[in-house]
Amino acid sequence: MHRDTPAAPARNDLIDTLRAFALIGVFMVHMFEQFEIYWTAPQQTLTHTLITTLMMGKAFALLALSFGLSFYILMDRATRRGEDFSRRFVWRMLLLAVIGIVHGLIYRGDILIVLALLGIPLIPFYRASTKVLAGAAALFLLQPWMWLQIAIAASGAPWANTPPNHWTDPALAIYQTGDLVAVLKTNLFEAQVTKWWFFIETGRISLVMGLFLIGLLLGRSGFFDAPQRFVGVRRIALAVLAITALALYLAKPHLTALLPAEPKPGMARVMAGNLLGGWFDMALMGTYVLLIVEAYLGLAGKALGWLAPMGRMTLTFYVGQSLIWVPVFYGFGLDAWKTLPQGTALWLGVGFMMLQAVIAQLWFRRFAYGPLEWLWRVATYRTWTVPFVRRA
């Protein structure tokens, strides 16, 4: 093996299981959204309420948390080998950004490029003290700059009450009726601009950075390496997060109503809703994580561990989901957004995830990495000596 290429790392099945849950959640939201076409005419149905309340934003938050944890694991393993992984991590993120750009041509909602570009600024935080990390995470999550925007909008400043850029989204009409060339052209630039405006204007970029840092802190603490050591802390945190999530859910409409609705569109209320909604997403995501840990360490451990192989090939599955399902829903393919009931789409999503779970189990009997994971590792270390077929 190439001297700079470490052997395939030992896996932590609990972490891989959490990644699998993030993958499942993101995909089910995509199926609900018809890969974004749904938002041309959303309907306040029970399905809408359940998915947006219980899954939307939470799965993405778990993915961001897992990313920060993975960053720590990569850097820590290199440090233990006596290496500085910083430059190689930058290169790894640039490669991920390229994958995201290509994937984004088919599906505008690609999050790989967001994770990649926001991942690079994580490097100086690796050696920061725990206090600095905790303070920075709190700053990113509390978003004092958004509080300032809310105050300015509430004062009636016209510029602060201008409708956000991401509210105008001509790409959705292209997805409904455009041919493949039109979709590719739209997704190359125009649709990506709308996506980035969404992340900026809703505070998502700040939340992602905060969750990255929490993942880093959890990795440094050894929480997922020996969760048995944290039983008391885990259960107290579970109660606090669950109560916080419930309180935010119940209080959000009342708190936002305290802010002025004028001048239209009442951006003080909109931004406060984004802020409180982001906190609710994080609190509920944290509740999910701790419940999964409790179940994994209890009687459901064996059943949940069956999902771990999915978490080892999230990149392959995430990209593959778009390549298969975007042509199903979009106008250049089967045009199913017109005829496929949302409930049926969600059940198809459940069946598809079960199929991916079986594929992952069978795949890792023979191979050491998922296909895209292997190519990403090969390109990261710039050598073809990374083993693909599992040795007997």
Q: What do these coordinates show?
A:
This protein is an all-alpha fold and 392 residues long. Helices cover 69% and strands 0% of the residues. The protein has 18 helices and no strands. Helix 4 (86-106) packs antiparallel against helix 9. The longest helix is centred in the C-terminal third of the chain and has 31 residues, at 267-297. The chain is globular.
Topology:
Layout: H1 13-33, H2 46-54, H3 58-80, H4 86-106, H5 112-119, H6 130-142, H7 144-154, H8 171-177, H9 180-188, H10 190-201, H11 204-221, H12 231-257, H13 267-297, H14 301-305, H15 308-311, H16 314-329, H17 342-366, H18 371-381
Helix pairs in contact: 1-3, 1-16, 1-17, 3-11, 3-13, 4-5, 4-9, 4-18, 5-11, 6-11, 7-13, 12-13
Brief account:
The protein is mainly alpha-helical and 392 residues long.
- Mean pLDDT across every amino acid position: 94
Task: Please report which band the strand proportion falls in: under 5%, 5-15%, 15-25%, 25-35%, 35-45% or over 45%.
Answer: under 5%
The global form is globular
Number of helices: 18
Report, as a whole number of angstroms, the end-to-end distance. 17 Å
**Element-level helix/strand string:** HHHHHHHHHHHHHHHHHH
Percent in helix: 55-70%
Main β-sheet: number of strands, strand sense, barrel status?
A: none
Q: Pick out the low-confidence regions.
A: none
| Rg over C-alpha atoms, rounded to the nearest angstrom | 21 Å
Structural class: mainly alpha
Q: Give a count of the beta strands, DSSP E runs of length 2 or more.
A: 0
